[in-house]
């Protein structure tokens, strides 16, 4: 089985920096780059918010389009490495930790679209650092690419 470098993206500048870093690591290691974008329908504070079925049905395809767009924008049409881009339903940290089983490396940005802007680490990157089954690299938000 080939080595795999896993990276989580969410469309944020920090995740684009993480994607560039992960692609270079995959290139250096001769590994497959697995790019993941998680999605989950938000729930209310005390009870699930009812969403119309047609809205729910559009989330995954829209997320897939956003993922493909970010990968093409950051890596170009021919990144020169095998890229396995996937949209997975579930909370981002859980998706990344689950998908990193057997991976050589897991890469995330320091902060994505959620949370508080003053934090050095976002909630997803903090959870991944503590629970990942492989080495983790957290790419700083301001890293040039």
- Cα-atom Rg, whole angstroms? 15 Å
Order of helices and strands: EHEHEHEHE
Q: What's the number of helices?
A: 4
Instruction: Indicate the CATH architecture.
Output: 3-Layer(aba) Sandwich
pLDDT averaged residue by residue = 86
- In terms of quaternary structure, the protein is single chain
Q: Any idea what the CATH superfamily is called?
A: HUPs
Write down the domain tally.
1
Q: What gross morphology would you assign? A: globular
Order of strands in the sheet with the most strands?
A: 3-2-1-4-5
Q: How does the helix and strand content classify structurally?
A: alpha/beta
β-strand percent reads: 15-25%
Organism: Aciditerrimonas ferrireducens
Family: Belongs to the universal stress protein A family.
Protein name: Universal stress protein
InterPro entries: Rossmann-like_a/b/a_fold, Universal_stress_UspA, UspA
Characterization of this structure:
- 39% of the residues lie in helices and 20% in strands.
- It is α/β, with parallel strands linked by helices.
- Helix 1 crosses helix 2 and helix 3 (92-99) runs parallel beside helix 4.
- The protein has a single domain (4-44, 51-139), classed as Rossmann fold (3-Layer(aba) Sandwich).
- A 5-stranded parallel sheet has the order 3-2-1-4-5, with helices on both faces.
């Amino acid at each position: 089985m080939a080595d795999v470098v896993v990276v989580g993206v969410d469309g944020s500048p920090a995740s684009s920096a993480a994607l560039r870093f992960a692609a270079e690591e995959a290139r250096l290691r001769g590994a497959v780059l697995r790019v993941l974008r998680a999605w989950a329908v938000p729930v209310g504070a005390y009870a699930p918010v009812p969403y119309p079925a047609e809205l729910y049905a559009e989330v995954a395809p829209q997320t897939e389009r956003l993922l493909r767009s970010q990968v093409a924008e950051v890596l170009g049409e021919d990144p020169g490495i095998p890229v396995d881009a996937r949209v997975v339903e579930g909370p981002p940290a859980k998706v990344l930790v689950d998908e990193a089983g057997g991976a050589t490396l897991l890469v995330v940005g320091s902060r994505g679209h959620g949370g508080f802007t003053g934090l050095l680490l976002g909630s997803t990157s903090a959870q991944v650092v503590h629970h990942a089954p492989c080495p983790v690299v957290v790419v700083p938000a301001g890293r040039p690419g």
